[in-house]
């Protein structure tokens, strides 16, 4: 009975730490996220695949790419049939300029999820020209700088960095959606928010998040 009680509290504590780590990661506080998640690295009370996946994200966010790759591979050892793990590994390999490894990983993601457009676009980068590859790396660097400005609530500077980012790579709607969200939530300009949500939808017409964001801003205009 005593062991059951101890296990209950252990499970509760570890899940709480897991959720705290995810929240920090979602907010862009990568070091804090890693510090929290490392506390439960050996826990059997949480989903270990997702623990390693999110630890990888926290490390990658700190430019600890080799360590991030290691934890992604740990997640893949647990569940090799999840396409998002392979797609994330491909992204890390791109940042490491390991182009052959990136190609192998994105092909595996596409094998598991054939025709997925975001993966096809990633493969275009991996198999593309040197100019395209370098532009994508510049795009990614600007995204990270934008996140840092958001953490300091420098919203206009963040928007400017995001606008610069799409000059280098504009094949997804992600950045346009981010700009729209900042205009809507932080800069109080719903007209511009709607314009950027529409641009995001032009890039990804079936993205439910982008569509919902546009509907919401038009409803409240």
TrEMBL record:
Name of one Pfam family that matches: TPR_8
Entries under SUPFAM superfamilies matching the protein: TPR-like
Superkingdom, natural source: Bacteria
Family matches, as Gene3D superfamilies: Tetratricopeptide repeat domain
InterPro entries in the cross-refs: TPR-like_helical_dom_sf (IPR011990), TPR_rpt (IPR019734)
TM region(s), chain numbering: none
Protein name as catalogued: Tetratricopeptide repeat protein
Organism: Halanaerobium saccharolyticum
């Amino acid at each position: 009975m005593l062991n059951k009680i101890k296990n209950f509290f252990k499970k509760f504590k570890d899940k709480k730490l897991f959720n705290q780590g995810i929240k920090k990661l979602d907010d862009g506080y990568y070091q804090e996220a890693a510090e929290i998640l490392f506390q439960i690295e050996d826990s059997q009370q949480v989903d270990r695949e997702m623990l390693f996946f999110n630890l990888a994200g926290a490390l990658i966010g700190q430019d600890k790419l080799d360590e991030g790759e290691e934890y992604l591979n740990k997640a893949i050892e647990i569940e090799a049939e999840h396409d998002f793990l392979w797609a994330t590994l491909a992204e890390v390999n791109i940042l490491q300029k390991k182009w052959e490894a990136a190609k192998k990983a994105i092909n595996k993601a596409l094998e598991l999820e054939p025709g997925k457009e975001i993966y096809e676009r990633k493969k275009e980068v991996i198999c593309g020209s040197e100019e395209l590859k370098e532009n994508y790396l510049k795009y990614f660097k600007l995204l990270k700088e934008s996140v840092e400005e958001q953490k300091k609530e420098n919203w206009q500077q963040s928007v400017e960095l995001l606008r610069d980012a799409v000059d280098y790579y504009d094949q997804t709607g992600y950045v346009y959606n981010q700009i729209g969200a900042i205009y809507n939530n932080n800069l109080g300009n719903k007209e511009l928010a709607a314009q950027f949500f529409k641009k995001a939808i032009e890039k990804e017409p079936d993205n439910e998040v982008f569509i919902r964001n546009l509907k919401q801003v038009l409803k409240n205009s």
